[in-house]
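Complex 347.
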Amino acid sequence: MAIASIKEVAKLAGVSVGTVSNVLNRPDAVSPATRERVLNAMNELGFVRNESARALRSGRTRTLGLVVLDVTNPFFTDVAKGVEAVAADHGMIVTLCNSDQDGPREQRYLHHLEEQRVQGILITPVERENERLEQIIGRGTPVVLLDHRATRRNRCSVAVDDVLGGRLAAEHLLAQGHRRLGFVGGSWSISQVAERHKGAAQAVEAAARTGGQEEGGAEAPSLTLIEVPSLSFASGRHAAERLAAMPAPERPTALFCANDLLALGLMQGLTAAGVRIPGDVALIGYDDIDYAAAAAVPLSSIRQPRQELGRVAAELLLEEIDEGERHRHRQVLFDPELVIRGSSVRR
Ligand code: RIB
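Predicted structure with alpha-D-ribofuranose bound:
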């Protein structure tokens, strides 16, 4: 059975095609009684509007694009939940794209979203600079950087102060008496990772300057870099195998991981190798996803306001879509929060 046309709806309701179009696009321009007659006719005929035809006429779909680094990471599903809630309030839908931390794949998705004439794009970019993104913005598609600080004033962004987050994590481990710290992270093109490491290094350097050594100057604070290929649970597991094989006196006694998935993979791998958490190695992650608190040893983490990030970014994008040239770009920055649990506190 074919979908009914606007003409068939107009005929059944006894109105013009223009009136049916008004009910769909400018319902306030139609009297309540006429609007009800048209809606009844639509229900009776099983009418479904042709969004593609409407988008063709208006030049834009009622869709927002959301490009995330890793759709399997609960951080991004929480962010997406915030984006989707705001989009739905405005009668819009969200097309979710997973770049999987892969630059070329991200470029393909951006090209697709522009071809689809989405109203705007939210993106956590793989690379700091992105020529394709600049071209898309130049051709008139609004873009808001999500969980990534804009380096230009003429770009909107919503992010968390990751340098502060890294500092909070390292200061917490130093306050527990640790001196041999490790930073587990990778994909340095991801600015969040580089900024978390920068904050941790600042805290360790400050501790070294202020005589953070043990009594008798036994050991100066240090931060060893443990590089991983991606911010995933599997990468954490593989890093655990490397760390467990290290002689204990050389191994960091505390690890700050660039996100919770890495920390949870490390926790599982180190525990399987007989390394006690936190007794032998303390752990702290980043994001404070729901699984952090539920871990075998509840994971300390640096909390990001995930759904709030998504909501604020979507609201900024819709503002820019609505205001056009009049829009005043903003770079919103949230503070992270230290959440202390059993994985980093010496009993
Ligand atoms: O995707 C990598 C990480 O970057 C996420 O865990 C989240 O912390 C984001 O900022």
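Residues 69-70, 73, 75, 147, 192, 231, 259, 286-287 surround alpha-D-ribofuranose (CB under 6 Å).
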